Amino acid sequence: MQNWNTQYNPGFSGEHRISTKQLPAVALNNKKVIARRAAMELEEDSTVNLGVGIPEFISAVAAEEGIGRRFTLTVEDGIFGGSPASGLDFGVSLNPSCMVTMQSMFDYYDGGGLDQAFVGFAEGDLRGNVNVSLFGDRMPGCGGFIDITQNAKKVYFCGTFTAKGLKTEIGNGRLKIVQEGHALKFQEKVHQITFSAQTALKNKLPVMYITERAVFRLTEKGVMLCEAAPGIDVEKDIIALMPSRPLIAPDFHLMDERIFHEGKMGLKA
Which of 69, 71, 58, 55 is nearest to 115 (CA)? Predict the structure, then answer.
C-alpha cells in the first residue's frame, strides 16, 4: 500500500508520467465552489501549499481547467509539483517533480519559500483569528498550520460558512441554501488562536477567507465582506449568522457566476 487508499500507482512514486486529462471532474458541490474561487487567486510561477480538507480540491480544479503547470503545488509532507491528491490519497501527488523529507519541506516553508498557502478553517472571529486546534474536549492540535500560515507571503482560508447539516443547490450561476448548517463558523471569540490576525497585520500579510457564499479579507479593523454568491440574501444568509455586522467593502460585488455553473470555468484562457 502506498497510502490509505491506493495499493500502487506509478504516477505517485514518480516512476511514470500519468495523463491528468482522464481524471474525472469533481462534482459541483460546496467544496468545488470554494476550490474554484480559491483557484482564481492562484498566481503565475508561485509556489503554493495546499492544506488538508477543502484546499485539497484546488488541485483537481487546476487539473480540470488545464492550468496546473502555471505554478508549483506542494504538500507539507515533502511533495513538490504535480497534482496533489485528495481524500484518503492526501499527502501524495500525481507526477511529482520532487520529493523531500518533511523536515526539509518545513525548512523551506519556514525560510519563506511559500508564495501562497491555501488552508482550511474550522472557526474564526471578526478580528480575523482562526482556530483549527481546539474544540471543547477535542484537541487535534496545530500540526504545521502555524509554520505555513505565518511564513507564506499570502494566506487563503477555505471552508464552508456553516457546518453540520449544510445543504445547498448549485447551478445556473447561482447558489441556494436549502438547509443551513447548525454549527456557525464565525464566533465572537475563537476557542484557541491557531492563526493570529494581529501577527498577520503586523507582518503586512494579505489574508482572505473563502466560503461557498461569501469572501472576506483581513483589514486593520477586522474581516471585511467583499463578495457574496449570486442568489444569496446577504442580510439573511451571511450577516445574520455572524456575531455582529462585519465591515462591508466599498467595492462589494457578487462572486463570478462561472463558479456556480457545470462544466469548465475557462481559467486557462
Answer: 71
Q: Sign of torsion, CA 50 54 57 61?
A: negative
Q: What is the pTM of this model?
A: 0.95
- In whole angstroms, give the CA distance from residue 19 to residue 22: 7
Please, what's the largest Cα pairwise distance for the chain? 53
Q: Is a pLDDT exceeding 80 seen at residue 268?
A: yes
Summarize the confidence of residues 114-138 as an average pLDDT.
93
Residues contacting residue 131 through CB under 8 Å, at least 6 positions apart: 121, 122, 123, 124, 190, 191, 192, 193, 194, 195
Residue the block writes with cell 503586512: 204
- pLDDT at res. 126: 96
Would residue 231 be called left, alpha or beta, if left means φ above 0 and alpha means ψ between -120 and 50 degrees?
left
Using alpha carbons only, what angle is made at residue 79 by residues 70 and 16, rounded to the nearest 5 degrees?
80
Find all residues with CB under 8 Å of 177, minimum gap 6, and list them: 166, 167, 168, 213, 232, 237
Contact residues for 242 (Cβ-Cβ < 8 A; gap 6+): 126, 184, 186
| Residue linked to cell 519541506 | 105
Catalytic residue chosen out of the listed positions 56, 76, 212, 227: 76
Reply yes or no on whether 76 is catalytic.
yes
